[in-house]
Amino acid sequence: MQQNQHIAARLAAVNLLDGVLQDGRLMSELIGTLDKLPSDDRARAQRLAMVTLRHLDSADRVLKPFLKKKPDQRVMNILRLGVIELCVQKEASHGVVNAAVTIVGKTRHTAHMKGLVNAVLRRVSEVAPEEWGKLPSPQMPKWLRKPLIEAYGNSTIQKIEVAHAKGAPLDLTPKSDTKSVEKQTDGVALPTGTVRLQDAGQVSRLPGYDTGDWWIQDAAAALPARILNAQPGEKVLDMCAAPGGKTLQLAAAGADVVAVDISEKRMARVQENLDRCGLEADVVVADVLEYQGKFDAILLDAPCSATGTMRRHPDLPYAKDGSDFGTLINLQARMLQHALTLVNPGGRLVYCTCSLLPDEGECQIDDILQQHSNISVDHDALNIQGVDPDWITQEGGLRLRPDFWPDQGGMDGFYMACLKIAD
Ligand SMILES: C[S@@+](CC[C@H](N)C(=O)[O-])C[C@H]1O[C@@H](n2cnc3c(N)ncnc32)[C@H](O)[C@@H]1O
Fold it and tell me: What CATH number should be reported for the domain whose range is 2-134?
């Protein structure tokens, strides 16, 4: 029975890999396919698929000498999963090889590859686990690596790849008191006030979850709202708000917050989070491009490539190929232009994206500054606790990268800038 369950989880992991690598779908879109599995198997399947995607380049390097010709994608994914189980999960070789052979035998068009899978994984199990630690960090796919090397240079990209391979810890934003959240969760407070947990386990079981003392938010993602520095009673618009980490920060600061997002489903999560944390905001489902009103301060967290979140979402560079980035860059520019019409004179706007691509960050701000003589960058806004002056860019924004804070567990890639609108 136990053995069958493990086969079920491994089979589901291979199906997830097929979904990402063959069909170009994100893991978040595929999770629903696991609904029939018991929760332990579901978690195991997701974990196995995520670790395999995170180390895909290394798994392929290990397999290459043992394959005269690359087999079809499904067989390749079964082999990749086997390599990861042997080299990362350190599972016993007989169980890994038997499971892989069983899975390859389950599908008619791959069943004839049982012998190859058996032979390759047996040979991998003899040499690879020891060699694994000597491999370079897995590289991201070329379509993304190339523009990022152009933007940051080869050595920075190598450091970012080291950070991606490590994955991400769990970061919490305290509702009010950092010290008590640090103590309650046994976490460590980072210089910017985020509390970081290395081995969190199930989030809803952590102390302070039910009482809404904190919410999950990467340390980098917590900075745009800190830079906006909303004041009690100020009228603040959170554009593109769901799932609501920044809405919660703005509401916790005592601002009068309107949170707008086009996704009804995601906005239901914003309301749930507000309720859990005992905070209030006006939650509106709408297209921000059509939304009207006047505000003292605006936070625009525009939809983007999400390339800054790859350490958390290793499926992203495989499910995407960059073909939709032009549309996103255009949408960001339109949202930014519209947002500026909603700010009161003398007000401020923080623009941000969880992207590593300068086209979605620095270039958007450069364009706005060229087009509007009444708008300037608020350099003083970046003067907040824990922000390293080295992170400040030429035009006055903040460029955050996964390779920053390497000894503390890194941070997501992010860009943000605070714009001032003249009176
Ligand atoms: C980067 S996420 C926002 C994350 C959020 N600010 C937070 O901190 O939790 C981008 C959001 O933009 C929303 N979005 C995309 N196009 C939109 C539009 N035209 N109008 C409103 N929201 C939109 C998506 O539904 C998504 O929730």
Answer: 1.10.940.10
d(CA 329, CA 314): 22
> Residue 288: which of 337, 235, 228 has the closest Cα?
337
Return the C-alpha torsion angle 16, 17, 22, 28, nearest 10: 50
- Residues with catalytic annotation? 354
Q: What was the ipTM of the complex prediction?
A: 0.99
Taking the centre of ligand 1 as the mean of its atom positions, its distance from the CA of residue 267, in whole angstroms, is: 9
Q: Check if the beta carbon of residue 350 is closer than 8 Å to that of residue 343.
A: no
Report the distance separating Cα 59 and Cα 22, nearest Å.
17
Closest ligand 1 atom number to CA of residue 306: 1
Specify the 3-state DSSP secondary structure of 18: helix
Question: Does the beta carbon of 263 lie inside 6 Å of ligand 1?
Answer: yes
C-beta of 301 in contact with ligand 1 (< 6 A) = yes
SS3 209: coil
The answer regarding whether domain 170-421 maps to CATH 3.40.50.150 reads: yes
Q: What is the pTM of this model?
A: 0.95
pLDDT tens-place string over residues 167-206: 999 999 999 999 999 999 999 999 999 999 988 788 999 9
Q: Residue ranges per domain, the chain? A: 2-134, 170-421
Q: How far is the CA of 360 from the centre of ligand 1 (A)?
A: 15
**CA 290–ligand 1 middle distance (angstroms):** 14
Query: To test ligand 1's pocket by mutation, which of 240, 266, 412 has the most ligand atoms within 8 angstroms of CB?
Result: 240
Determine phi and psi for 416, rounding to 5 degrees.
-155, 150
Banded pLDDT at 1 (limits 50, 70, 90): very low
25 lines ligand 1 (CB under 6 A): no
Would 2-134 and 170-421 be classified into the same CATH topology?
A: no
